[in-house]
Amino acid sequence: MDNQKHMRDEFIGKMHELAKKDRNVVMVNADMGAPALDLFRLELPQNFVNVGIAEQNMIAVATGLALEGKKVYTFAIAPFTTSRCHEFIKLNAGLMKIPINILGVGAGVGYDDSGPTHHLTEDITIMRAIPNLEIYSPSYSDMAKNVSEIVYKSPNPTYTRLDRKLVPDLSKYYQYDDFTSGFKELEKGGEIAIIATGNMVHNALEIRKKFLEKGRNIGVIDIYRLKPISTDLKNTLAKYKAIVSIEEHLLDGGFGSIIAEIIMDGNLNTKLKRIGLKDYFYIYGRENIQKRCRIDVNSVVEEIEKI
After folding, report:
1. Which band of pLDDT confidence, cut at 50, 70 and 90, is reported for residue 306?
2. Do residues 13 and 36 touch, judged by C-beta distance below 8 A?
3. What is the largest CA-CA distance in the chain?
4. Model-level pTM?
């Protein structure tokens, strides 16, 4: 647990550093709390706006501030800042290419016990349809910190989806990475590779360990920028006979669909197996939800063994 940090606090902490140097950085918050956010509010109150439980208004206020030259970040629970605000983001930020940076916490079923109202299982589907919007999905806390600075420099509107819970550190894979390529092949494999984003990258690494115990070498690829997707990813996928995409997200139009589009549009001979959520209504613990939906480590191992 010593190396585990909240992505949220690392992202906001970096934003806080940027705001100390650039007083045009503004945080627009929808009644959220966090240790890093509390420090930002106390030290830079003139750069902090709390609109209350009014996420659509948060997007409207952020767009207005950006039009006046401010570097705006918004912060709310992820399902409330995506599906609830979708039209506002599409019309205010996407179509007009207004550079606001939308931060959503609770990707997948991170707010597991809060139930489907707080689950985020369709954001990739709906958000990647918004024009000009960049989408980031970090897999660990230091990456989230770097993404905070990347979006600060972007001329486009951005959406960053963060896991709610503590996640293991993956710095050993990214020691000399500038996080601009959008993906990384963490472990090279033989004929099969698992491809994942966000929290599910850690599941992918656990699955790899189980196969190594069986004498099979399975590759692992981390996709941390979902839009625009890297054009170089096609070459990495082409090295494998089969790709298995895993996601804590609905299969319809989700992460696996992005990979399918790359394989089909690139005329690759690589087979694809998509593993993710189908129609579901489960609560009470992330581990329980993953098992019931058969996206947990052991269930995915069983599916890969069929390939």
Report:
1. very high
2. yes
3. 59
4. 0.95
Strand, helix or coil at 250? strand
33 — pLDDT class (breaks 50, 70, 90):
confident
DSSP structure string for 128-171: TTSTT-EEE--SSHHHHHHHHHHHHH-SS-EEEEE-SS-B---G
Alpha-carbon distance of 93 to 97, in angstroms, equals 5
Expressed in angstroms, the distance from the first to the final Cα of the chain is 35
Angle at 218 between CA 217 and CA 222, to 5 degrees: 140
Cβ atoms of 55 and 84 within 8 Å: the answer is: yes
Q: What is the pLDDT of residue 84?
A: 94
| pLDDT, mean over the chain | 94
Domains of the chain in start order, with CATH, are 7-162 (3.40.50.970), 181-305 (3.40.50.920)
Q: At what angle are helices 7-21 and 35-43 packed, to 10 degrees?
A: 20
Would you tell me how many other CB atoms lie within 10 Å of the CB of residue 57? 15
Give the list of residues 6+ apart from residue 160 with CB closer than 8 angstroms, or none: 11, 101, 102, 103, 104, 135, 136, 137, 138, 144, 147, 148, 151
Q: Bridge-partner residues for 193, per DSSP? A: 219, 243
SS (H, E, C) 27-75: EEECCCCCHHHHHHHHHCHHHEEECCCCHHHHHHHHHHHHHCCCEEEEE
Burial class (CB in 10 A: 0-12, 13-18, 19+), 281: exposed
- What is the pLDDT, as a whole number, of residue 1? 46
Which residues, other chains included, contact 17 with Cβ-Cβ below 8 Å and sequence gap of 6+?
Answer: none
Band (pLDDT 50/70/90 cuts) for residue 115 is: confident
Strands, sheet with 242-250, edge to edge from the N-terminal-most edge strand: 183-187, 219-223, 192-196, 242-250, 271-277
Q: Look at residues 5, 8, 1, 4 and name the one whose alpha carbon lies nearest to residue 162.
A: 8
Among 38-47, 143-152, 255-264, the least confident range: 38-47
Half-sphere exposure of residue 36: CA atoms within 13 angstroms, side-chain side: 17
